[in-house]
Amino acid sequence: MGRWEPDARERLVRAALDLFGEQGYDNTAVAQIAERAGLTKSTFFRHFRDKREVLFGGQDQLAEVLTTGIACAPEQAEPLAAVEAALVAVGTWFTDEHRAHGPQRQAVIEDHLELRERSALKMVGFGVAMKDALERRGVAELAAAVAAELGVLAFERAYGTWVTTTGDWSDVVRRSVAEVRTAAATLG
Amino acid sequence: MGRWEPDARERLVRAALDLFGEQGYDNTAVAQIAERAGLTKSTFFRHFRDKREVLFGGQDQLAEVLTTGIACAPEQAEPLAAVEAALVAVGTWFTDEHRAHGPQRQAVIEDHLELRERSALKMVGFGVAMKDALERRGVAELAAAVAAELGVLAFERAYGTWVTTTGDWSDVVRRSVAEVRTAAATLG
DNA sequence: AAGGTGATGGGACTTGGTCTCATCAACCGT
DNA sequence: ACGGTTGATGAGACCAAGTCCCATCACCTT
């Protein structure tokens, strides 16, 4: 295991969040993050692809959750229903710590272009994951793309309200999907 | 104007595209691009925010085209119709050179994560631009978000087929919007 | 006790990106 | 024609991100 203390990855995340809050994202060097976590720059880059990723770590698992969530949805469920099921399933992945650090994490991301960029990429990844999963269910390519895109939109909106309220994730996300669905239906 | 030759920006773009094609994106240093263009690293970064941006330069204008395109759409046009009008208007911005370099540009972007990341950010920007423009027309926030998102989807699909065929942009994009619209309508 | 494994430390190295100052061409008014 | 202004460029120092390679140490297995 670790050469000294365990949980190196989590220590790095916590150190990064703290330092970003204290002195800002740009004024914080990777070496400094590692130092506070009792590690070194080398180790940081073994755990995270780059400096940005420390704020998005683990979101790759989320794509898997979405994929299996759609795959395991009831067979007769229409595309958006399957998407909704998958988004609800994400709730089991959201930890309390996630919700606690949520706002401050979002704040850092909001005012740094390179972080919004990474966020955008993650969202695209979610969309692709959902689209592929839908197609594996037999949904037509175009319909899958549209449903996935609307799913991403619903997810973003749900997450935004979830981190700023006390509501239950499943409630929030179901409401969000319903809103997006009716909006899409009453569009053309 | 320029100290020596004019069109420094375009020369940089061309040099970058050539070098990326010859030796790959990662193996090409900014200094090298600048050198081939008869300039220096300093000048490169005066024209482009970073190395990636040389492949996406000018897309900020495109956001403006979308914004004004939506603003100038017929008043009684529903959201997606306004979006369609804006997307069609983009055709006047697409140059022949754009279409010529399109495929090779896309190829470079496709297999470099950092470039797909930048692309994703641009798309988000287009979405925001369209959403804001729609809201300024009085469209409800949610409906604007949905229409904008579907617009981005239609745009991406249209661009993908446009660069690989010989069709007219307005034809391609109108068809794409129509497809997305019916797909969205027959979803829930 | 000996060897293997996996994570870490450490440091050299490349390059993206910033910053500052000097330079030079074109423009403008006199 | 002359001198000052403007704007883009050149040059180089500088910092931090990210890569690479190898030594090191804890832990586990045999």
Draw up the topology in text:
The structure is a homodimer of 188-residue chains.
Chain A: H1 8-23, H2 30-36, H3 41-47, H4 59-71, H5 79-89, H6 96-110, H7 113-136, H8 141-162, H9 169-185
The structure holds a DNA duplex (30 and 30 nucleotides).
Protein architecture, described:
Two copies of one chain form a homodimer. With 188 residues, chain A is mainly α. Chain A contains nine helices and no strands. Chain A has helices at residues 8-23, 30-36, 41-47, 59-71, 79-89, 96-110, 113-136, 141-162, 169-185. In chain A, α4 (59-71) runs parallel beside α7 (113-136) and α7 (113-136) packs across α8 (141-162). The longest helix of chain A is centred in the middle third of the chain and has 24 residues, at 113-136. The radius of gyration of chain A is 18 Å and the shape is elongated. The relative contact order of chain A is 0.11. The mean pLDDT of chain A is 94. Chains A and B meet through α7, α8 and α9 of A and α7, α8 and α9 of B. The structure holds a DNA duplex (30 and 30 nucleotides).
Radius of gyration of chain A: 18 Å
Tally of individual helices of chain A: 9
Shape of chain A: elongated
The secondary-structure element order of chain A is HHHHHHHHH
Q: Number of DSSP strands of chain A? A: 0
Oligomer: homodimer
Helix percentage of chain A: over 70%
Which structural class matches the secondary elements of chain A?
Answer: mainly alpha
In whole angstroms, the N-to-C terminal distance of chain A is: 57 Å
Structure, briefly:
The structure is a homodimer of 188-residue chains. With 188 residues, chain A is an all-alpha fold.
